[in-house]
Amino acid sequence: MMGTTSDHQLAIDIGNTSVKAGVFLDGFLTGPVTRFTDQEWEVADRMVTNLGVKNIIYSTVANVPPAKWMDKWNQAGRFTLALKPELPLPFTSLYETPATLGQDRIAAVAGSLSLPTSSAPAAAPAEHLPARLIVDAGTCITLDLIDGDAVYYGGNISPGVRMRLRSMHDFTARLPLVEPGSLSGEVGRSTEKALLHGGQFGAAYEIEGLFLRLRETFPDLELILTGGDAALLAGLLSIPNVIYPNLVLHGLNQILSYYVQHQS
Which residues are designated catalytic? Predict the structure, then answer.
């Protein structure tokens, strides 16, 4: 499998409100993903110590791990790597501004390389992967394209579901603020339902539209969903899709393994 090592590795995804961490061995999560706050880094230290972690990678949109723990891990002989634009990646990128490419997008694209195809056993990714459209549905929705030869073409960024609903309220005088919810029918029969249909189905139609256009060039294209609103959008899509909740952590592990292999 691409991007694996025989050592326990810790992948850490530092967000604005919480931190997610998972321990990997041979490319697979060894247990459930752990969540903690920026004030609870002793949780990560227990994972490192109790599970015999040798290599650590983190990506961040906020703060970095406290120096206290970084120093402890380094002094104990652990290898720690920060995800940065200049790191070697397990794919070829055609992105023209790599310095501004979001770490979560880099990791999600890398994570897609470890996934099985829709026709391959889950335990054994295929030798040649199909092209993938990777949709990370969070505050913003990112849609990124990688082909079967591990060439990353770039992608799109657009407002997430809640941002769409919030903007319609904030930038008008009378439209109410509505929360994502269940839908029925193709159109809304009240103002609140119309907002929900526009915000939620609008995001789904955007994903479908890009997927169908790209499939003209990449006939084997698969749709991969991740992020907090992945399940919400998956239920609205009329095209086959697969949800991978921890794709960013898998991608961080891929990048770490690729780096370790090529530095040895």
Answer: 104
Q: Is 136 annotated as a binding residue?
A: yes
Q: Is residue 106 part of a domain?
A: no
104 is in an annotated binding site: yes
Q: Do 136 and 216 share a domain, yes or no?
A: yes
How confident is the prediction along the chain (264 residues), in pLDDT tens digits per residue? 455 567 999 999 998 778 999 999 998 999 999 999 989 999 999 999 999 999 999 999 878 899 999 999 999 999 999 999 889 999 999 999 999 999 999 999 999 998 876 644 444 444 678 999 999 999 999 999 999 999 999 999 999 999 999 999 999 999 999 999 888 888 989 999 999 999 999 999 999 999 999 999 999 999 999 999 999 999 999 999 999 999 999 999 999 999 998 876
State whether 177 and 144 are in the same domain: yes
Burial of 31 (0-12, 13-18, 19+ CB in 10 A): exposed
101: in domain: no
* Max Cα distance, the chain (Å): 63
Total-model pTM: 0.88
Domain assignment present for 213: yes
Are residues 22 and 120 both part of a single domain? no
The whole domain housing 157 covers 116-243
Sheet strands side by side (includes 151-159): 92-93, 151-159, 140-146, 132-137, 222-226, 242-243
Residues 135 and 207 in one domain: yes
On whether 19 is known to bind a ligand per the annotation, the reply is yes
**Distance between CA atoms of residues 40 and 241, nearest Å:** 35
43 annotated to bind ligand: no
Domain CATH for 189:
3.30.420.40
* Number of domains forming the structure of the chain: 2
